[in-house]
Input
Amino acid sequence: MSCARSVSHVTIIGGGLMGSGITQVAAQTGHRVTLVDLDQNILDGATARITKSLARVAKKKFGDDADGAKAFMDTTMGSISTATDACSVVKDTDLVIEAIVENMAVKHRLFKELDSVAPQSVIFTSNTSSLSIAEIAEVTSRKDRFGGLHFFNPVPVMKLLEVVKTADTSAETLSALTAFGKKLGKVTVECSDTPGFIVNRLLVPNLAEAIKMLERGVASAQDIDTAMKLGAGHPMGPLQLADYVGLDTCCFILDGWSEKYPDVELFKTPESLKKLVSEGKLGNKTGEGFYKH
Ligand code: 3HC
Output
């Protein structure tokens, strides 16, 4: 087996909120990054989102120093390229971070294809929020060079990165991923490949409990959120955070867990959550969820 190279070029697959956030942070911290998505419109949207978010970072970092801010923006944006064909990109990369749709069959198709063209030294990772890393890795011939890198939204602001290991992830891969995470400026925690890893396993049932509390009429959405902000010191209340994460994402995670663990009451998807999702009310991204945005 070849040794993992240190990461200089990163390929990020999926131009959604997470993929663009990861792209930004990797570029900001001196990596060359290629962001890949099948859809050019999504890539254009991601570039606009990164530019906007980077401007906030530049403002914070450089204040009134307009030249410094411009140089920072130019250098960072200059180290990002985009592509629609992942296979051509992974022929010359060190690390792949997948942040596409949470669908095992789609992830399998992607990784099987990438595995056949990427050099053996390339490390593959997934940013999945709830699927099993080992199951995703199953279709590849590099299970020892496969792990999870789980980022948090908004990626440029949240300091944590969960580094997830399966039974097959090698010590070299784990240390390369941890070193990469530190280079991104994140605090890393190591975690086994279990549903929700650390944060989502504790956070998502908490959001679901808040939704069930609202359903029981215990308190209004505003009062539940105010209570958790001022009584528990959380930056956002649980219903506000559910809207922020995306109600479809919350629903998908809970549906998957309750299918796998039907006896765990905590994992049951609240009816009102299912209803909002079926109505296309997905939270901040669609303008309405538990709140109007
Ligand atoms: N890009 C760059 N900077 C950003 C940013 C972005 N997208 N969003 C916010 N910021 C910066 C702002 O510039 C600001 O910087 P400053 O304090 O130096 O001026 C700082 O972050 C705070 O932003 P705001 O003043 O706009 O707003 P808030 O103080 O209300 O903070 C928040 C916003 C950081 C989102 C905060 O409310 C928060 O931490 N909320 C909880 C988020 C959370 O829990 N995320 C995890 C969700 S779970 C997840 O992602 C896992 C997945 O698998 C489901």
